[in-house]
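Annex B. Sample input.
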Amino acid sequence: MLEQLINLNLFAFLLIFSRIGSAFMLLPGIGQQFVSPNIRLTFALLVSFVMTPVLMNTLPAMPPTVAETSLILVGEVLIGIFLGLIPRIVMAALQTAGTVLSLVSSMANMFVLDPISEQQSSLLSTFLGIMGIVLVFVSDTHHLMIAAITESYTIFIPGGPLAVGDMADVLARKTADSFRIGVQLSSPLILTGLAYYVGLGIMGRLMPQLPVFFFGLPAQITTQITVIAIALPGMMLVFMTYLENNLINLAIP
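Annex B, continued. Sample output.
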């Protein structure tokens, strides 16, 4: 009896850890490369240990064969990857916004290592990404990420069939929405840059002897930095609202 109970608990823990660990591998902030793998693993194990008694009644019985057990574990891993990709795709809106801002402000050639996107990126993209991660933890939005993973057991039943088509459709829609939100976040600078370029072109036609590039670049950078400082609180407020709405849709079935 004791041996059966131990085996059942270990199977339940392994099943829960497969989904939670896969999601934590991709979640923004928690799953970034600058976070130590040992810390990520420890955090995933602790959350799985806490959630095992709560979710044990919703889990299927341990299959009699290794093949069936492997299929269930692979399905849980895929679900965890899906749940971790959605916040990561939403966070990519800041990467899109920063790239557009860099282009319209003539700072696109200023590349630094972005710890959020884990690649070389523009300075403004890195700045917005780090600010987004800070706001996620300051506003306790990461609790919604964990709640979304926990509540996913009411939507994705362990051992049930995977809705691969629906999951792919959701990811495609979230990617399109992320790009749209990123462009919308950068709209103040797009309008400012367009007005500036039109005015600079008119000045160049009216005064051919004016050194347009020598005169225009410092003024453009100064103007765009000022507009960014003014519009930044509103941009981040819109982004955090967008992120919270997506996480709430996952956390509330």
